[in-house]
Write a sequence for this structure.
């Protein structure tokens, strides 16, 4: 099958949906599909084109303004790409990409069915931030793109349920397909805790204070002192546009040890993950949590907020410990878990098993192929 992925994209970036797209494209290429990625908005550098080529993926750029002329493309660049590649199906990644207003209509005119991966962008909690601006954009620009897609891709049952309850759009080929996660064979496994009275707590990802609940994490670590547990939070990622909010947060929690290691990728990421005592994903919403799955994949026992879409599934499988959104109550749950090394070891083993069964590349590609086949049949 000729598959054309379209959307914002960058290699080596601390972005969950960028990394999910890259993993999927590479796995599809290995399985025999003819796969290309069109980077919307910016050109691509030759080094990244070569990296993609070696992975069996064509990487092309579609430079265009973010907003200006969102309904057209005077360059004709994307139309030329479609004429050259003649994809069987296009896969649009993420939401609130203004140029999709043009892209979706071009695909419809050309008779190319398309599907859309939301990656949490339409989550009802996420939509509370700058709510009226997002609602205006949804009704004026984006709703048509979703309503005319052959199918919508969700990474968890929780994401699908939230979307349908909130937005009411159902497409014929809609499917839940988890993200791919491949743990390198040489990646070290969690060796066990070093000091559960002074745990090294890891968080990997964007330093989005509100979304990722970094304020909740620090409040919980402070509350753990009442249980004679003095933890430190180790951050791996980038602040980016959230730098000012991060500075304000750290200034308010000067008594809680926080170590910012910056972005770490590649094999070193898994080594760093395994070197901590526990992983914490205290997001106010999270439709999947790729870094969480990576932590589980190396056997690092993980705590996940009750509002994360995967929390019920992981908790039921014993693959992670679910914690309440109130940091003081969460501290009680975490303190109890930290007092039971045997429980942490069980959670670590079950977390690894869940990732191996649900996120394996072959399994995910098979499920995505089924999704595409249903979309082509619409």
């Amino acid at each position: 099958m000729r598959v054309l992925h379209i959307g914002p994209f960058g290699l080596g970036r601390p972005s969950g949906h960028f990394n999910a797209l890259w993993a999927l494209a590479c796995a599809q290429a290995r399985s025999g599909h003819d796969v290309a990625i069109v980077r919307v908005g910016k050109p691509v550098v030759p080094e990244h084109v070569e990296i993609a080529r070696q992975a069996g993926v064509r990487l092309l750029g579609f430079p265009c303004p973010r907003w200006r002329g969102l309904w057209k493309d005077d360059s004709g660049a994307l139309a030329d790409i479609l004429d050259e590649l003649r994809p069987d199906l296009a896969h649009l990644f993420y939401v609130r990409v203004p140029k999709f207003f043009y892209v979706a209509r071009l695909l419809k005119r050309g008779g190319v069915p398309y599907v859309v991966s939301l990656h949490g962008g339409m989550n009802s909690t996420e939509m509370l931030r700058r709510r009226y601006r997002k609602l205006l954009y949804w009704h004026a620009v984006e709703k048509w793109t979703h309503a005319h897609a052959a199918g919508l891709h969700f990474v968890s049952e929780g994401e699908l349920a939230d979307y349908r309850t909130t937005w009411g759009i159902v497409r014929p080929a809609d499917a839940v397909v988890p993200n791919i996660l491949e743990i390198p064979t040489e990646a070290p496994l969690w060796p066990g805790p070093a000091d559960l009275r002074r745990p090294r707590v890891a968080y990997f990802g964007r330093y989005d204070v509100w979304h990722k609940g970094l304020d909740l994490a620090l409040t919980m670590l402070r509350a753990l002192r009442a249980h004679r547990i003095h933890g430190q939070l180790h951050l791996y990622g980038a602040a980016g546009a959230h730098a000012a909010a991060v500075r304000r947060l750290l200034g308010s929690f000067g008594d809680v040890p926080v170590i910012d290691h910056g972005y770490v990728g590649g094999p070193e990421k898994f080594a760093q993950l395994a070197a901590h005592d526990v992983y914490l994903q205290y997001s106010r919403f999270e439709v999947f949590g790729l870094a969480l799955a990576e932590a589980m994949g190396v056997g690092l026992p993980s705590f996940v907020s009750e509002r994360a879409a995967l929390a019920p599934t992981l908790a039921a499988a014993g693959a992670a410990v679910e914690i309440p959104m109130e940091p003081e109550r969460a501290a009680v749950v975490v303190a109890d878990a930290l007092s039971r090394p045997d429980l942490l070891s069980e959670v670590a083993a079950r977390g690894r098993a869940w990732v191996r069964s649900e996120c394996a590349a072959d399994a995910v590609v098979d499920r995505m192929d089924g999704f595409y086949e249903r979309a082509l049949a619409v």
Q: What stands out?
A: The chain has 14 helices and 13 strands.
